[in-house]
Write a sequence for this structure.
């Protein structure tokens, strides 16, 4: 369902037959991604064993989020990739367990904090699949698969629907912002008018200064 997950990538893989990994890309900021990614990772971890099995059988779970926007909660982090796990509050070098791990890659930060790593090659590919490092064989393979998918009519139609949804979603968010801004300004004007009225300022002067109707001012 597009409204539930607006992603162009959602892959679950098994690493070395013992590590569960979920890779997801989000392009629309739903303002809840921190809770969602933690929920997905913890659910994946809990489902790694069946009821009644030994807890020692629990398998490490890694959730990788690739976001096409900067997370507000991570604005102070001056790098494009951050890794999260369970640490002690004051002894931050001590990890309680690395069984649950969350990796967040913020694409808008990439240009600011780019580095020469294997991960950087993949990020470049995600941002612009047309420009790839031909010396990286794995990225070349990914490009070939992407080209094949792009030729598939069904996949192309899904991509078109996804793009349309994203554009509509962003337009809705922008409209909501404008509506909220207008509402906030109106509230601020009314509060100012109320204070002026309380100080005994002539209603006609308040009307001229704020643009509120005489009736609105009288009802304050």
């Amino acid at each position: 369902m597009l409204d539930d997950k607006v992603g162009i990538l959602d892959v679950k893989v098994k690493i070395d037959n013992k590590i569960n990994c979920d890779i997801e890309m989000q392009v629309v900021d739903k303002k809840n991604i921190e809770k969602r990614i933690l929920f997905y990772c913890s659910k994946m971890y809990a489902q790694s064993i069946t009821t009644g099995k030994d807890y020692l059988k629990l398998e490490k779970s890694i959730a990788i989020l690739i976001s096409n926007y900067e997370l507000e909660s991570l604005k102070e982090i001056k790098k494009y990739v951050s890794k999260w796990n369970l640490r002690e509050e004051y002894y931050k070098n001590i990890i309680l367990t690395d069984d649950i791990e969350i990796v967040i890659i913020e694409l808008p930060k990439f240009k600011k904090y780019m580095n020469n790593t294997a991960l950087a090659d993949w990020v470049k590919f995600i941002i612009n699949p047309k420009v790839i490092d031909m010396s990286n064989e794995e990225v070349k393979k990914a490009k070939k698969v992407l080209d094949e998918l792009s030729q598939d009519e069904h996949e192309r139609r899904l991509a078109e629907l996804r793009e349309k949804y994203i554009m509509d979603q962003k337009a809705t968010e922008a409209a909501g912002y404008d509506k909220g801004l207008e509402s906030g300004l109106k509230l601020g004007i009314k509060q100012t008018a109320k204070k002026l009225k309380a100080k005994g300022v002539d209603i006609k002067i308040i009307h001229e200064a704020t643009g509120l109707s005489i009736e609105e001012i009288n009802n304050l």
